[in-house]
Model the fold of this input.
Amino acid sequence: MNNVTAAVVLYNGERLIPTLAKTLSSLPADLKTVIYDSGSTDNSVAEVSRLLKNKTIIQGKNLGFGYGNNRCLEKIDTKYTLFLNSDASIDAESLELLISYLENNHEFAAVQPLIRLWDWDKVTASCGVFLTEYGEAWDGRFMHLEISPLKEPLQVPAITAAVALWRTDVLRVLNGFDEGFFMYFEDADLSLRAGAAGWKLAVVRNSEAFHMIGSSSKRNSAIQWELESSIRLFRRYLGGNGYSLNWWRRELRIFLYSISKGKSPFKRVFLVLRNLRKNVEIVPIPDEVKVMLFGDPMDFPQSRINKDSPGPGWKGNKISPWGGLKTDGKTIVFHLKAVDNFVSGSFLSGTGEILQRFCIAPGKLLKVKFAESPQVVYIHCDSSSDMLEVKLYEE
Done:
């Protein structure tokens, strides 16, 4: 696999290095790795030096995710570049499937695997990247329970850089990432520029990877960076396509809502005005990309994991249409109650095996206990509109 080099950007990721080293060591020994450390103040560089082989380490300032990857790209001379987040993993078999797809489909610039949520084998974290009409990038089927995904490749307008394989020569022609993005959505921009140049992108869904969502930044910082990035994307790809009036109406609604709630709207106003003053190159979107750009409503993202919830898919003590939890080997008694109407569904194990079917009348309580408690349990309603109240009791 000496035709692939992995590009990794680090920033205070010492805790992630052992897992990253494990991922890279599971890939063929001749795979090269170029790492850009963005001025970490912890022991990231020392840990990388100690645990990783066949690597090049570049140390510099924290000027953004795209900036770091571009510095890696300057050192890469292989046919393919594997963008790999320090909090993501892929195995040799899945990487080989990505390589094979590009070898056999020369019109594609890059591919990504179907990315799962770390430690939740059946939960999708990314199946391609799409845009909202306001320029916000979102991952397809984010936080969806995907027991038996389709195996056919899926052409998409954009792919994530968390785990993605690109043709290095295409990256060079595109001049890599736009360093005007500090963090977030720079992968969508890179993909859309590739699409504008006539290239295609795809999700190779029989290849799988895993990603620890949100481990690289705090949510408050992420919201600011996402706003700035969305403005840049909006201006570059959507500002001239009839969406400007809707965008300004949304900003006015947010402004008035903030005032009504006694919150200052002026930080957001400042960020918006500052980013509107920046120079942005307008890139026309080809019709083939336009028809895919906003995705399918059935693939829209669902809520992130709440830190106080048992697992993904929960909304307080309710699930709709699914929720997962880890039992830690304990015997759990499930109390299920249908909220508004009859609810049918299944208990599933972590491997997707059906443990038990259920059908609950409105207001009725169903108690379920398994003789041997699985480590991971998913509760799945048959209808996407169904909702269950769930209480958990240890026995």
Summary: The two ends are 51 Å apart (CA to CA). The chain has three domains: 4-211, 219-285, 314-394. The mean pLDDT is 90.
